[in-house]
């Protein structure tokens, strides 16, 4: 999607010209408050993505009709002015491509009476008769005027740092505006953002140390995404940091991040069930259990950042009490060494399952058998790296790359990836052949969009290949199919009558939805009022939270590192908007679609 780093003056001038021509049309649409003109700035299949500019919501619209229908209600009210191209070296108009199509990309700035906004546009250049038109444009509120991010703080030279910190800490601990539940990367990114936005927030984490959620996972685990993807807000990795961070390094980095960003965190802490919300004073009453001490607190907001996954999904099998070996979930897999000389069956065929099979095969298990029930989505680490470098090229900072990455709605991204499948098939042909030889079933999805929708629709059923295919191809990992019918003392038996001998069974069977964990805390009456989590909503957006949930004062936040890095800003803006009295809906109901 992105342009390439070296940009000649010629091509840059041309890009400026095209971007300016396109921008003129958009300016006229705003000046005339004309929704039809606005929609005509887009290609007939173009995408408009709006984060809080035209409504108190996140929306993705495709095509003239839907774009016009969406903006017509408020184009007269938004009062967008000073719409301009970003002229910085990273944001200025430059050439790029969408699959095989050449485009011009540019970051944008604009103003409204009370906000400063940013945007990003991907423009299809004019072609003979046609005008330049946007394939995709994002507009988003970036700051409430007078309440901008603090940025670099020099501090008074005479003040003792320790005194300033302990006073700040005391104020937050005694009277927090926001309680963030969960100190994984999501909770930490949000807390760091809130600190810069002057929102008093405390994080409570049930583990004894920040990073323990990673420390407790299986020892071979390395992130499958490159380090730029899993960079935390304001805090780049050292230049010699590995591309794929190991779980221990990540755990320690998160812990150090919390310290360096001066976040206020209570460890060994959680909230007790049944917090109550007073809709008159707009505050919660919540009991926090801090290492056995029960403290009643009254924050205005609760942000649920308890992770993507709820409890492990542990299937029950007939006869499992007769099985003589160990049965464990991937969540507690201690590493392949423990299973040296044993016959291990791994149930499941996605990321954890393939990682664990690789670990077992390389650490002396007598046999490793994977049970695959249905086809898995597969992407190679090589193709993943190509996709990633398109959006996050080396030459561009993370801030601008995130802006560009979030400009294209997820459905637009899906179309783009579908178009790239012939390239993926070519790059990964050895992998597909190797997997097929060993009987591992791969799905491309009916529309050819491969594993990508599985990430955004259910975050399950796919894996990123880091060499697993070779083990399947050469028989080091055997793949069998079917449903487990029952266990005996020493075997796993399938409904087609076949069986596999086993000394241990690893259940790489995923997790239950996190929303069910939240139901235990808040009860069904509250949770049923709130949005679903993950998957695509009716507005074409991934349900990651970071916007009104449906329950006043309750916010959800989840997703990969890029989500909290980016959307923590919108969450902070919503909270500030309530504080400033901008938000028009007194009870913070879920915005209507
Ligand atoms: C095996 C495995 C491999 C993965 N590989 C990758 C990868 O390669 N790349 C990638 O981007 N992502 C990967 N992920 C996904 C990754 O875990 C999530 O993207 C990320 O951890 C989500 O961060 P989070 O902060 O939302 O949740 P978590 O990291 O799960 O953090 C949630 C925190 O909340 C705490 N918590 C939960 N409930 C409460 C409560 N009631 N009270 C107090 N504290 C609470 C938990 O203890 C935890 O510390 C992987 C996940 C797994 C399981």
UniProtKB/TrEMBL annotation:
The keyword Nucleotide-binding does not apply. Keywords: Monooxygenase, Oxidoreductase. The keyword Amino-acid biosynthesis does not apply. It comes from Schizopora paradoxa. GO terms for molecular function: flavin adenine dinucleotide binding; monooxygenase activity. The lineage of its organism: Eukaryota, Fungi, Dikarya, Basidiomycota, Agaricomycotina. SUPFAM superfamilies: FAD/NAD(P)-binding domain. InterPro entries: Auxin_biosynth/cation_transpt, FAD/NAD-bd_sf. This is Dimethylaniline monooxygenase. It holds the Pfam family Pyr_redox_3. It comes from the Eukaryota.
